[in-house]
Design goal:
This is Cell wall hydrolase. GO terms for molecular function: hydrolase activity. This protein has 211 residues and is an alpha+beta fold. The protein has helices at 2-15, 26-40, 65-70, 78-91, 96-110, 119-123, 149-163, and strands at residues 49-54, 57-62, 176-179, 190-196, 199-204.
Amino acid sequence: MRIFRNAIMALALLATPVAADTPASPLEQALAVEQSRMALLNGDRLKGFLLFRNKRGAQPVERTIEWIDAQPFLEGDKQWACLAEALYFEARGESTAGQFAVAEVILNRAESRRFPNTVCKVINQGTGRKHRCQFSYTCDGLAETITDQRAYERMGKIAHIMLNGGPRDLTDGATFYHAKYVNPAWARQFTRTATVGQHHFYRRATRLSQN
């Protein structure tokens, strides 16, 4: 009954305007914030928008260059730096959706028991061992030099969004990917989950138990 009464109160507050000079209760404040967020997502503005959560709560995300460029550039910790660098060297020439998709794979790996448990460890897995690098730029013998600052800032913004709870709905849980112009043998062992931009994405095939 208490839950039902609370729901009725919330509906009543949504329908009742709060005077500007009247102190709002915490519930009223929360409802007002939620209404303002929903207003941002009405009509055509809903298309292309997703939500991620950070310390400020739910924030709208649009996977376009214009939207990314309009966001502030915020440096982060070591894990952020690793992800931003990986996106720069692995995906800066991709579409924005493709860049988000590569970030998904890295974060999916970090959460999988089959891979190292941090972003930096995932990216550097196998580095220094011939043909064992998981991300080719870490063992191509070239220095990781940032030459396109604007592209790097975009990758840094995407890294910030994804590390703070950005949605992972492009690759259906993929933990592998490769460029469309190559055909690696390992890809035959996995299930392709998506194609985004210039990359195919995969995850391990699910084995069904037999009785």
